Amino acid sequence: MINIQALTKKYGTLKAVDNLDLNVLKGEVFGFLGPNGAGKTTTIRVMAGLIPPTMGSISIGGYDVVAHPREAKKVTGFIPDTPYLFEKLTGHEFLRFAGRLYGMNGTRVESESERLLAFFDLTDWADQLVESYSHGMKKRLAMASALLHDPRVIIVDEPMVGLDPLGAKKVRGLFRDLANEGKTIFLTTHELPTAEAVCDRIGIIHHGKLIGLGNMDELSTQARIPGSNLEEVFLRLTLETSLGIS
User: Fold this and answer.
1) Tell me, what CATH number does 32's domain have?
2) By the 8 A CB rule, do 175 and 185 touch?
3) Range of 189's domain?
4) Same domain membership, residue 201 and residue 146
5) Could you tell me if 19 and 43 lie in one domain?
6) All residues at 6 or more sequence positions from 39 whose CB lies less than 8 Å from its CB, including other chains
7) Distances (CA, A) of 173 to 62, 80, 103, 119, 208
8) Which of 43, 151, 204, 205 has the fewest other C-beta atoms within 10 Å?
């Protein structure tokens, strides 16, 4: 569902992403991890069509995000780490606006809005201005808007930031349910226990390069510490890369 080939993104002389190759499958929850500045957010922004690649390509659902941006966006739901919402609209109005952007008919927008507002515990706030929402509520509304058009691929940057423990548990369950329905989830997070619990496979990026890829057994073998947890694997691989140890 997501195919990344030789992706490179430069800012001047800095290579934020360096010749990245990655294939994420249908029905997979894929975690994309790395230290601050590793290239995670840059990769996601290229995937979402917010910035162009310097070289290489990304296709989502068979659509190249540069050559066919509208088609790629129609099959994608994007949830940024910081929600950017129209705060002078109510929650309900914002979802109606999002639905029109996706070309959804009014009846479907209303039914899906009601369902998602209920799921994210926002029904009682649906007619209140978004500016009155807490950060966690804004994050949940952003998730609802990204899921409104039933995308085949969901790209999520730091999904648990701003959520209380109950909300985070619900979102973890949602990701697994969506994957079981055949959706593909691509997420970044600094919460390693969350990634270990919810992801089928994990890629670790550092200095713009992919330094680890696989399920937990495969990653622990790559780190030469079989049976270890994700935190141990992550620290070993990133430290060795920083020190130039192969």
Assistant:
1) 3.40.50.300
2) yes
3) 2-75+151-243
4) no
5) yes
6) 9, 16, 17, 18, 20, 205, 207, 208
7) 27, 19, 28, 12, 30
8) 151
Label the pairing between strands 29-33 and 14-24. Answer: unpaired
Burial of 235 (0-12, 13-18, 19+ CB in 10 A): middle
Does residue 48 sit in the same domain as residue 16? yes
209: phi then psi, degrees, rounded to nearest 5: -115, 145
Global pTM reads 0.92
- In this structure, the number of other CB atoms found within 10 A of the CB of residue 13 comes to 5
Residue 108 lies in a domain: yes
